[in-house]
Amino acid sequence: MKILSQLKTSTFQLALLYMVVFATSVFLLLAFIYWRTAGFMTEQTDETIEAEIAGLAEQYRGRGINGLITIIRERVSRDPNAKSLYLLATDDYLKLAGNLSTWPEEAQVQNGWINFTLDDSVGWKGSERLARARVFEVQGGLRLLVGRDVQELTTLKRLIERAINWGMGITLALALLGGFMMSRSTTKRIEVINAISRRIMNGHLSLRIPTRGTSDDFDQLAENLNQMLDRIVYLMEGIRHVSDSIAHDLRTPLTRLRNQLENTLMAVDNDEARDQAAKAVAEADQLLATFNALLRIARLETRGNAADKTEISLGELVADACELYEAVAEDKDQTFEQAISQDVKIEGDRDLLFQMVSNLIDNAIKYTPEAGDIRVAVETVEGEAVLEVSDSGIGIPDSEKDNVFQRFYRVGKSRSLPGNGLGLSLVSAVTEIHQGRIELTDRRPGEENPGLSVKVYLPLYRPLKRKVLRSQQGQLPPGESSDKSGSEEESGSMRQV
């Protein structure tokens, strides 16, 4: 799979394109060399034959036909290997002189340059060989063939062709290997950047992309990204400082205002005034819950997955949360079904997970009408722990399922219900800290009230793997203490609308 993914990288595709261009240029160069070499050797052979013909013509002009026959026989006797080929025959192809006994078939249909095979058909004794010759007529109706054995030339051409083919094959193989290695090297550096970027997106804003000190393109890109991250962190710290200051500054007077309203509620005797004071206290509680939720989510998002994690029975934790909300469901005459497996173990922060489960159950109860049904289940599916909270309420349209994890986002149908739109934002933050994922689906698709099924997938607890990782990293097991700062202020349920 890694090789297939490597072949899909832009670096490998660019190297492949370069390989095609390079191989084409090499092929054209070798083809030109072959054409010039083979052409030169063919020209040399033709010039040798022309020189033979010129010598025979001179003898023929000086000594006649008998002199021509004599010189042909002398040349044949001086060439026992028969590199030069001669055949003088009558107009009906009867041999007069030469080292060929029969006129080649090719020479019977045309004059000029011919290529033929030396075999039994021309009276050749020995292995078959290739030959090239020139045929023309001599005065008196005689026919003359003068040629050369070109078997060595043909063998040399085939050797050159084979060398070109091997050279092209080796060139393509080396180019492919070079492209793969270059792509692998580049992909490794890109993967480092991607891995660090993913961890930064998960909240580890202190991480930076490493450089090699080579000042190449990747180093320059890493330095620019690191500078950008430094600037983002600086701006975020400024915004966080301002927002924390505003939250703390407003939370203190709101708390005093709420206490004063509560004192007023206890002091007044008029029923109408008491009712107004109770509503004001409720609004103050809602504002304080909103501030606490914002501060809690901000802390979760900035700490990444650095929560204090211990082994937790997810079934027991969910059962405790169900026991807390069972009475609330009974008040609305809702069916509260539980299918909880007690042997599902995960690793996480118990306080954060309990807050997440509470928000999901609270949402289900809130958005399910009276006499509706709610189901809470915990099970193991394909090596993952799965928490499912489903209801028969108004549901969430498909077009808005990706938006409900944003802060203060509220679905149109639920805007009339109390809430601040922060519950699922906190659920999302807790899930990311525990390296999980959330899935939202309709419980009854197609109905007017399709309901909602929220599934949270979390990694199972693996003690052996965790022990090995700790020993490799030289880390001590974390303490059992969990971050409980601000727990009293934020103990209120974060409700999602």
TrEMBL record:
UniProt-listed InterPro entries: HAMP_dom, HATPase_C_sf, HATPase_dom, His_kinase_dom, HisK_dim/P_dom, HisK_dim/P_sf, Sig_transdc_His_kin-like_C, TCS_sensor_his_kinase
Annotated keywords: Coiled coil, Kinase, Membrane, Phosphoprotein, Transferase, Transmembrane, Transmembrane helix, Two-component regulatory system
Lineage top rank: taxon: Bacteria
Residue span(s) of domain Histidine kinase: 245-462
E.C. code: 2.7.13.3
SMART domains on file: HAMP, HATPase_c, HisKA
Compartments (UniProt record): Membrane
Molecular function per GO: phosphorelay sensor kinase activity
Annotated HAMP domain residues: 184-237
Spans traversing the lipid bilayer: 12-35, 163-182
Family matches, as Pfam families: HAMP, HATPase_c, HisKA
Reactions catalysed: ATP + protein L-histidine = ADP + protein N-phospho-L-histidine
PROSITE patterns: HAMP, HIS_KIN
Coiled coil: 254-290
Gene3D superfamilies: 1.10.287.130, 6.10.340.10, Histidine kinase-like ATPase, C-terminal domain (3.30.565.10)
GO terms for cellular component: plasma membrane
Region of interest called Disordered, as start-end residue ranges on this chain: 469-497
Main location: membrane
PANTHER family tied to this protein: HISTIDINE KINASE (PTHR45436:SF8), SENSOR HISTIDINE KINASE YKOH (PTHR45436)
UniProt-recorded name of the protein: histidine kinase
